[in-house]
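Milestone 3.1: sequence recovery, worked example.
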């Protein structure tokens, strides 16, 4: 007869073992709680709206201080298909549409398939995803033609998109740098962002698909490798300087 530990006991043991490797910091309690409790879905209406408002307020203030005009972005939460100025959005992860300056978050998207591929939709993911999408809105405010759809040729856009994505990651890092200092986001949450950005790299996503027996979709629209994305995010997170975000 074999004896099996219940899941909570395994988590407790893992927590005790890992405790030796964790520095005594203010958010140690939260760290232990994260290990002991099953991950919660942070993508609820209230949490998404609150994080969106905080990030947008940061950028609005930053723009005002620099004497730059800032047009606010909108947030649309939906489940399943939704119409946008960029067409009908279905089965897509979080997305920023520059034609209607709106961030669309499909709350039904974080299914078990998503969790299997990308991990839990926790607070770290919530903050990274919204900071990245609003990074695109910062780009829109500075260079609206990036999102006009007819300013560049197709081949110019194909070359430009990875740089736009890496810059949005860097801008997400800049916001997280501020949010940690300001106490809006825990340091342990912000520190997960480079790994999350890595996980959305083209090469990493391809490998993950292959690992699940799915042939990766070949596309010319690359978003940057895992290393590139995490490097640019880390740059913004460490420096807190948006002027350094120019891939
Ligand atoms: Zn993006």
């Amino acid at each position: 007869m074999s004896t099996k530990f219940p899941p909570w006991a395994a988590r407790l043991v893992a927590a005790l073992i890992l405790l030796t490797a964790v520095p005594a910091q203010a958010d140690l309690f939260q760290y232990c709680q994260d290990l002991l409790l099953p991950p919660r879905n942070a993508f609820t209406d209230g949490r998404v709206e609150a994080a969106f408002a905080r990030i947008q307020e940061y950028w609005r203030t930053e723009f005002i201080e620099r004497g730059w005009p800032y047009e606010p972005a909108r947030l649309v939460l939906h489940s399943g298909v939704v119409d946008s100025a960029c067409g009908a959005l279905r089965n897509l992860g979080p997305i920023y549409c520059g034609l209607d300056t709106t961030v669309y978050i499909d709350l039904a998207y974080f299914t078990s398939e998503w969790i299997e591929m990308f991990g839990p939709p926790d607070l770290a993911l919530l903050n990274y995803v919204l900071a990245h999408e609003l990074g695109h809105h910062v780009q829109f405010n500075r260079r609206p033609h990036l999102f006009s759809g007819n300013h560049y040729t197709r081949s110019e856009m194909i070359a430009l998109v990875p740089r736009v994505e890496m810059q949005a990651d860097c801008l997400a890092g800049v916001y997280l740098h501020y949010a940690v200092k300001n106490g809006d986001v825990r340091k342990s949450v912000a520190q997960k962002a480079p790994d999350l950005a890595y996980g959305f790299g083209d090469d990493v996503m391809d490998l993950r698909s292959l690992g699940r027996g799915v042939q990766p979709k070949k596309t010319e629209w690359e978003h940057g490798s895992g290393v590139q994305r995490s490097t640019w995010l880390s740059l913004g997170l460490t420096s807190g300087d948006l002027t350094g975000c120019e891939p």
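Residues 132, 136, 165, 168 surround zinc ion (CB under 6 Å). Residues 29 and 35 are 10 Å apart (CA to CA).
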